[in-house]
Design brief:
The chain has about 325 residues and is α+β, with helices and mostly antiparallel strands. Helices cover about 40% and strands about 20% of the residues. Strands 1, 2, 3, 8, 9, 10, 11 and 12 form an eight-stranded antiparallel beta sheet that branches. A two-stranded antiparallel ribbon has the order 4-7. Strands 5-6 form a two-stranded antiparallel ribbon.
Length: about 325
């Protein structure tokens, strides 16, 4: 099968009103497909779901240890954070500690997604800094690696030593040459790969041991994500809430345009999924459904019910429908 299939549906009345089509793959520690929906060989841009791969050279090179980075720093390096104080304060101290400031970032600025931080910035008449960018933790990691490598200031350029190290790591863990890259919202290159290769990479993270520097780095990164789900995303966000809700350690990471990955270390499994229309609600419903299917998420947990079989309420408080997993995902 090469076309996308229904993964999530929006019901109103007795039948679906909208359907989110997509592709999803579960791979095991050998890189073999355990289960798949749609086209496993669909070429995709994993966007921010690849951040733990982009952070791999930071740790494997020794740059993280040289800079004294903690698991909190590593979680932020993998994060698409909400720009709350718990995120921006830590990233700010991090870059100051390595002799950098906000102007050294190359990610651009946007208003924080966290409501309290957003409202405080508006009420103060201030403007967002680059540290508010949801990718500022990743870019703090790039700056740290760049200091270690001795590269120039424009660390997001595709031929820069930092991005060459990232591409090498990406192609190694996916076990596939990247056919092209796109420029992400934070200006960094985002390599393309197949959905199967991305799931294989996540299974490699899940089963990483202690044999090589890269394996040890992978373990430290997923462990940091699991230990600090509030830093990976933020309060009210699906990544944070679903990681907290799982009955065993699971690292989750969303990416723009409805991408999602999951790393299940106790099972040696990796998951990658893409909703074809880019709809986040479809991706959140689908990843929660896969976690339920794998037995690591209680379908009745409030975090699961928020995105899966979630009621749609109108302005009078009347339930008018629901967002449900498609029959193939139930």
């Amino acid at each position: 099968m090469t076309h996308p299939v229904p993964l999530a549906e929006v019901w109103r009345g007795p039948r679906p009103e909208s359907v989110h089509l997509g592709h999803a793959v579960i791979c095991d520690a050998r890189g073999e497909i355990v289960e798949a929906w749609g086209n496993p060989d669909e070429v995709v841009l994993p966007r921010s779901s690849a951040k733990m791969i982009q952070a791999l050279p930071l740790v494997a090179s020794g740059a993280a240890d040289a800079a004294g980075l903690t698991p909190e720093h590593l979680a932020l390096a993998c994060a698409s954070h909400s720009g709350a104080a718990i995120h921006t304060d830590r990233v700010g101290r991090w870059i100051a500690g390595i002799g950098h400031g906000d102007d050294d970032f190359r990610c651009g600025a946007h208003m924080p997604w966290d409501k309290a931080a957003h409202d405080a910035l508006l009420c103060s008449g201030g403007t967002p800094c680059q540290v508010h960018n949801n990718c500022s933790g990743k870019h703090a990691g790039f700056l740290t690696l760049n200091r270690h490598l001795g590269g120039g200031p424009d660390y997001v350029e595709p031929d820069h030593p930092v991005q060459r190290a990232v591409m090498e790591a990406f192609e190694t863990v996916t076990d596939q040459s990247s056919p092209y890259f796109g420029i992400d919202g934070c200006s960094a290159p985002n390599p393309a790969t197949t959905l199967r290769a991305m799931a294989r990479a996540m299974a490699w993270y899940a089963s990483a041991g202690e044999a090589t520097a890269e394996e040890r780095a992978a373990r430290r990164l997923w462990q940091a994500m699991v230990a600090h789900p509030d830093l990976v995303a933020g309060e009210g966000r699906a990544c944070t809430e679903l990681m907290r809700a799982c009955s065993e350690p699971v690292a989750l990471k969303t990416g723009a345009e409805a991408f999602y990955i999951a790393i299940l270390p106790r099972r040696g499994l990796g998951v990658a999924l893409k909703i074809a229309d880019g709809g986040t609600r479809g991706a959140e419903c689908a990843i929660a459904s896969i976690l339920v299917r794998l037995g690591v998420l209680d379908p009745q947990h409030p975090a699961a019910c928020k995105v899966r079989n979630a009621p749609i309420i109108n302005w009078r408080g009347i339930e008018t429908g629901a967002i449900r997993p498609a029959a193939t995902m139930a």
